[in-house]
Specification:
The chain is mostly beta strands. The chain has one domain: Roll (Ubiquitin-like (UB roll)). The chain is built from two helices and five strands. A five-stranded mixed sheet has the order 2-1-5-3-4. Strand 1 and strand 2 form a beta hairpin. The longest helix has 10 residues. It starts with 5 loop residues before the first strand and ends in a 19-residue tail after the last strand. It comes from Nelumbo nucifera. InterPro entries: PB1-like_dom_pln. It holds the Pfam family PB1-like.
């Protein structure tokens, strides 16, 4: 019987990246902590499921990033785009540790509504 290894992922979602004088920051949105993730079962699709558990559709996801180490996010973000890069993030988190995940969302095109106004003449 093997020993399970668990980590936790802290999701930053619903916000956006902005460049400031101090570097890159993630503003807005919310933070959700997902605990007790078995590293033997982690996959890219599992990450997308976690995004859905945070209240967002996987179709809204443009990119997923994780932050390497406890430094700022300006130069230490790595993109997760498939199972291979998902497994790569595990090298940066130890048993019982946590990792910060950031979601960049698709920008949806605005929906335009065409309305037709008909003027009527009123006679008093």
């Amino acid at each position: 019987m093997g020993t399970d290894t668990y980590v936790e992922l802290r999701w930053f979602i619903g916000g956006r990246f902005e460049h400031t004088n101090g570097g890159l920051v993630y503003v807005g949105g919310k933070v959700k902590l997902i605990k007790k993730i078995d590293v033997d079962n982690i996959s890219y699709w599992m990450l997308l499921k976690m995004v859905e558990d945070c209240g967002y559709s996987k179709d809204e996801v443009s990119k997923i990033f994780y932050r390497v180490s406890n430094m700022g996010i300006s130069n230490v973000l790595r993109e997760v785009s498939d199972d291979s890069t998902t497994f790569g993030l595990l090298t940066y988190v130890s048993e019982g540790g946590s990792l910060d995940m950031y979601v960049e969302q698709n920008v949806l095109a605005p929906t335009y509504v065409v309305a037709r106004c008909v003027a009527k003449e009123f006679v008093w």
